[in-house]
Each structure stands twice: as structure tokens, then as C-alpha cells.
Amino acid sequence: MKILITGGAGFIGSAVVRRAIADGHQVVNLDALTYSANLENVESVAADPRYAFEHVDVCDRARLEAVFAKHQPDAVMHLAAESHNDRAIEGPLDFVKSNITGTAVLLEVARAYWGGLPGDRKDAFRFHHVSTDEVFGALGETGDFTEETPYDPKSPYSASKAAADHLVRAWGHTFKLPVVITNCSNNYGPHQFPEKLIPTVITRALEGKTIPVYGDGRQVRDWLHVDDHAEALLLVLHKGVLGETYCIGGDATKRNIEVVRAICAHLDAMAPANTPHADKITFVTDRPGHDFRYSIDSTKLERELGWKARMPLDRGLEDTVRWYVDNYGWVERIRERGFHSDRLGLVKA
């Protein structure tokens, strides 16, 4: 299969690119290379003859049409999105453009392309939209998000992703475009942009800086290793029922402060400082509208497609800390491009 993956130079997108190539697929990586994209993330597959890269924004209809005409993909996996809640609060219209307008433009280009395919290829075509659990809003002390949970987004970011989900469903219902949607929990792992919670904690600790935690750190998140997520996404692309939604979670719910302390413990073993790294934890003013708790029930995905997250959280955190310790130059090269972790604190996590 030849898969067009949007946002393939980003954190999750690059994991999907690497996994798809490993599984024997051809991949067209389409990315606008905005601040959080990094072609180093796909360096391991860049020389593979099955890999191609296109520097294109999903809002650019003419260039999208040219990419579809040139590469003739069998499927689309749409991961390109603005995803940082703090940035959404600072500049919400950027999220409206990328996440809503960009999705609408991509849907229209994909629809025209799909409509012109010959019978067998048209029947086999798939459009997989990758979304977030944040579209469901926030949970109280108990319960889980499922595919039946009503949408109740609380932030500009989650509202923009909810709108994109609705557009995908509308194109599926109105135009019969063969679509499938997934909603995932918080991802973590190697190659994650340094402004996200886990890499923020790791990099600031390695630099001897304070480790900022929003509020009292009691917010609860379900943590999903990015490699588990990539596996699930490709499974849904191939075997998911058209028109259906699948929730993907890591079955690993923890309070933010528990995750931060676990990271500090791993850092104490791998990169010890004069005092325990946890001594650097500092509680900071919470961001506006910070959702309290997310948790996903992946029963449908397990029951229908046989998928279940395999990476235990503590081992995944240990592996992630090790990667950042061993690959700190990756972070430094991002800083050379103008990003500074002091500008923004923590994200949706």
C-alpha cells in the first residue's frame, strides 16, 4: 500500500512513517515543516526507496492536488495539526486554520482524487483522520471516554480538533468518502517536541533548572506510548470499519505529579545530580481551562481488531528518559532553530 501521511515529520506522524516503512508500505510524508516538525525524526528511513517527502501545507489546495496526482496514494492518514494547548490560548486562529481549514481542504482534494480512481482502487481507498481524546472534554473522578462519549471540547485546540472530526464524518456521510477516525490519549516517547510535559521535565532536569508543574499536579492523563499508537493507527487503517470511530488508550492513567516524580527517579539513576531531581519540582499557576482528567476505554479496538497497548508505563518512561539522555544533541539542534523551553511551560498533559 502507498500511504500519504500528513504531518509525518512530527512526533506521532514520524512514528507512523517509520512503522509503515518497517511493515513494507510505501510512504509519502507530507509536512509543512512548522516549528515542531523535524526531518531528523525520519532520518532512519529517508534513504529507503519506498519513502518520499513533500514539503507542502495542507491548506494549499493546488499543491495538494499535485501531490495526489504525482504519487497516486492508496490511502491517507491525516496527522498534520497544531496540538499545543498553550499555543492555542496565545494564538487560536492558527489552530482554526491548520486543524479546521486544513482538514477541509485535504478532504476536498482527497474526495476529488478518490472519485477519479478506477473501480478496485476506489473501493480500497481509505481516509484515516487521527484525532484526540480532548474532543470529549474532561472527566470527573471516575469513568472513561468511549466512542459513544458526547463531544464537549473545552479549549481552542480541542474545539478545532472536534470541528475537524465533524468535517470528516460529514464528508463520509454526504459524499460517501471512505473515512475512519481515531481518538487517542496522551502520547509519549522518543522524538517528542521539547515543549511537551515529559520532554520538558527531562530536559530541564538535565540542565539543572526548575521543573514546572501546573497547579497541584493532580490532573490525570492516560499515557500511550507512541510506538503502540503507531501500530494501532496502521491496524485501523487496514482493518477498521468504514465510518467508525476507535478510541486508542494506553491503559495507564496517572496523575501528572506521579509521572513527573517517576521521570525524576529514572533521571536520578541515569544522570544523577547533587540532589534528587524531584527537589527541583515547582508548582506554577495553572493554565486557563485546564481539563482535570482524561481516561480512554479501548475495549472496542481490542474486541474488534485485537489491539491492546503493550508498553508498560514505567518501562516506557525509562526508555524515553534514556533516549533523551543519549540524544540530547537532538534537543540542542531544535534550540538552534529558535525554540526555548522557557517560553512555554507544560501542554495538554
Question: How would you sum up this structure in a few lines?
Answer:
This protein has 349 residues and is α/β, with parallel strands linked by helices.
Description:
With 349 residues, this protein is of the alpha/beta class. The chain is 42% helix and 16% strand. The protein contains twelve helices and twelve strands. The strands form three sheets. A seven-stranded parallel beta sheet has the order 3-2-1-4-5-6-10, with helices on both faces. β1, α1 and β2 form a beta-alpha-beta unit. The longest helix has 24 residues. It is globular. The C terminus is likely disordered.
- Biggest sheet architecture: 7 strands, parallel
**Number of helical runs?**
12
Strand content: 15-25%
**Order of helical and strand elements:** EHEEHEHHHEHEEHEEHEEHEHHH
Structural category is alpha/beta
Overall number of strands: 12
> Uncertain runs with pLDDT below 50, 5 residues or more?
342-349
The rounded Rg comes to: 20 Å
Global mean pLDDT: 93
Task: State the strand order across the main sheet.
Answer: 3-2-1-4-5-6-10
Q: Any idea what the shape is?
A: globular
Overall helicity: 40-55%
How far the N terminus sits from the C terminus, by CA atoms, comes to: 34 Å
